[in-house]
Amino acid sequence: MRRLLFSITAIALTLSACATTDVQQLSQTSFKVSTRGAPACGSAGTRNVAFRTAAVEVIRRGHDLFIIQGDTTGYDGWSGINEQGMVVQLIDARSPEAKNALSARQTLGADWQKLVQEGAPITCTN
């Protein structure tokens, strides 16, 4: 049964979208991004979707600066599904950590407003 579920998930990801992402609030200033990418995404594509989703979520929470505090990668050799998890810490621009933080707007590029409006990416290309 479990293999059948993995197969159905893999086929659904491949046909409907390249990746799916869940975001879980961990504290007032942190959240976790969990992304599952189809075999075509590969680990790098799945990681890219998770990272772009993190940047979108940082802006949606009213911030620009963030640090990735935790990072996990997984691969199911049977189904080819890639998994990426990231724990994201929001950083206040006045805090000492700001000098080492990443900018969500710069991460997303010139079209950041459009990307934030669209939400979490579902494809590994971009």
Task: Please specify the SSE layout and strand pairing.
Layout: H1 2-16, E1 19-27, E2 30-37, H2 42-60, E3 65-75, E4 82-91, E5 102-103, H3 104-108, H4 112-118
Antiparallel strand pairs: 1-2, 2-4, 3-4, 3-5
Task: Provide a descriptive summary of the structure in words.
With 126 residues, the chain is of the alpha+beta class. The chain has a single domain (2-118), classed as Gyrase A, domain 2 (2-Layer Sandwich), CATH 3.30.1360. It has helices at 2-16, 42-60, 104-108, 112-118; strands at residues 19-27, 30-37, 65-75, 82-91, 102-103. A five-stranded antiparallel β-sheet has the order 1-2-4-3-5. 32% of the residues are buried. Residues 12-16 have low confidence and may be disordered.
In short:
With 126 residues, the protein is α+β, with helices and mostly antiparallel strands.
